[in-house]
C-alpha cells in the first residue's frame, strides 16, 4: 500500500482484486438484482466507485450493514439521503434474522416483475472488504421461513476475521420455483483510495 506524503491517494490493489473486479463486471451483466452491502457508519466511504456505473444500471438494494453499531439519528439521515435519490436502501444487521428477513422482503418486491417469466434468477452480493457480505449470505441460509425457502443443504460462505476472505465468486442456491441463486463475491476496493481520511475510515470500520 502506498501513502502519498502530501495526503493524496492510497494505492493498494492485489492481483486477486483486479481479477475479481473483471469477473464481477462480467456477472453483473446477467444478474437480475444486486445487493450492495455497505458499512452503515461510513456509507459513502465503503463504496467501490469503479463499480457504481455498472451497479446503477441494475435493480439494486443498498444494504447498510452493521446498523447496530451506527448512531440511529445519523442512520435516519442517511436513509433519507438515499431515498431522496430514488435508491432503495435498508439498514440491516446481517446477524439478525428479522433484519435479514426485511431485506429479503424488499428483494422479493424488486424481483416481482421478473419472477413470473424467468425460470432462474441471479442475485449478486457485492461490496468492499469486511462489510459483512458472507455473514449476510449465511444468515439467509439460516432463515427457515423466508420468502425464498431453502429446500436443500447448501454450503455456507466462509467468514473470517480478515477482510477479503472470500477470494472467488461462489454461487449458492437459495430457492426453487423459480430457482434463485445468490453469488457471494470477494471484497474489492478501488485501485486508488482518494485520500488518507477515506483509507482510515475503511481501516477502522
UniProtKB/TrEMBL annotation:
Pfam families: MMR_HSR1
Localization per record: Mitochondrion
Alphabetical list of InterPro entries matching this protein: GTP-bd, P-loop_NTPase
Main subcellular location: mitochondrion
Molecular function terms from GO: GTP binding; GTPase activity
Alphabetical UniProt keywords: GTP-binding, Hydrolase, Mitochondrion, Nucleotide-binding, Transit peptide
Superkingdom in the source lineage: Eukaryota
Recorded coiled-coil stretches: none
Listed SUPFAM superfamilies: P-loop containing nucleoside triphosphate hydrolases
Keyword Phosphoprotein: no
Domain G intervals: 123-189
Keyword presence, Protein biosynthesis: no
Protein name per the record: G domain-containing protein
Species the sequence originates in: Eucalyptus grandis (Flooded gum)
Phylogenetic placement of the source organism: Eukaryota, Viridiplantae, Streptophyta, Embryophyta, Tracheophyta
